[in-house]
Amino acid sequence: MSAPSEACTDCLRRAWLIGELAGHIEKAVDNRAGARAHELLALADDQLAEAMAGTRAGELLESAARRSPQRLREEIAGARAWACCRHDGLYPGALRALGDPPAVLFGRGDPELLAGFAAERMVTIVGSRRASAYGREIATKLGLQIASAGLDVVSGMAIGIDSCAHRGALEAGGLTVAVLGCGVDVPYPPRHTRLYEEIVKRGLVIAELPPGTTARRWTFPARNRIMAALSRMTVVVEARERSGSLITAEMAHDLDREVGAVPGRVGSSPAAGTNALLRDGASVIRGAEDVLDSMVGVGLVPPRARVPRGPALEPELAGVLSLVEEGSTSADALARVSGLGPGPLAAALVQLELEGFLRSDAAGRYERTALAASEPA
């Protein structure tokens, strides 16, 4: 892994000052205008220190000014991380749309991947931590299909929708970016340590807080603005009426980014937030095609890779695959509509699974994967 050019000393000191003020920010932040996390982070160093620490402001600012650049960089290296500041050519240009762009992005993973960041090729997927089985399935499928189309998937590694979106993207072999509300060396939540390690290995984990910083209540809406800014489109899969995912959607809207939502059952609490977004004009997202249609409308950057393709299919296999796509997802249903006998149908389903066009669950239901069939020679 090659390192980006070093973050400048002033930006590193700013990041550590915010880390040191984290406890004060926790006490001061609320939903009133001017006191929200992203508004506080827009303040200059002296204003932020005075607003948060009062009489201790001068002491904290002097301490920040005395921080040794070498010691700061040693701490980053000790966390097996890298740092990229807003004066660096690798700093994502999309973040400059923020009124309060992070002074520094700390990261783990290959920093050279930053060079390929383009908002028009990135999709943020967020949603409820208390997701339903339906929501988790949709998030996984969206992550897989969007990554299979060559777009980058951004999320927050939280329990529920976020982690499912990351896993779907990893399953597709695509790039996924996890934005944390803590230090980049702190897998959060801890139960997702294995997912974190996989993302570090194959994608990127980034954060604006210095290594070792623990997550706090305010750090999640703060990191939401980064997720909203990085991508041309934010998709909310499931969200209750008062959900952090709706904050991300609101921030995306304020940045003139596209907002999409997956429809849910009327009256279902996990879908109350997403259905409200749709009422207010968000794009209806039923699958990756809807995302791609919206992305093309705002100038899709050429994707990183083509949609993966399997071998060409014989007409009988193509016919069974088409029936699954149309909604016949059980062997009984396929037997009724395909006209095939039990033996030929079972053989067709086994072959489609082996070739990677279908997957089946424990109940014996079949679903389509993102793999496309090659054209017959």
Overview of the molecule:
- With 377 residues, this protein is an alpha/beta fold.
- The chain has helices at residues 9-20, 22-28, 37-40, 45-53, 57-65, 69-78, 133-148, 161-171, 193-202, 219-230, 244-254, 272-279, 288-297, 315-325, 331-338, 342-355; strands at residues 82-85, 104-109, 122-126, 152-155, 176-179, 204-207, 233-236, 258-261, 283-284, 309-310, 358-360, 366-368, 372-373.
- It has a nine-stranded mixed beta sheet, with helices on both faces.
- A hairpin with a 5-residue loop joins β11 and β12.
- α1 (9-20) packs antiparallel against α5 (57-65), α7 (133-148) packs parallel to α8 and α14 packs across α16 (342-355).
- The radius of gyration is 23 Å and the shape is elongated.
- The protein starts with 8 loop residues before the first helix and ends with a strand.
- The model has no long low-confidence stretch (mean pLDDT 89).
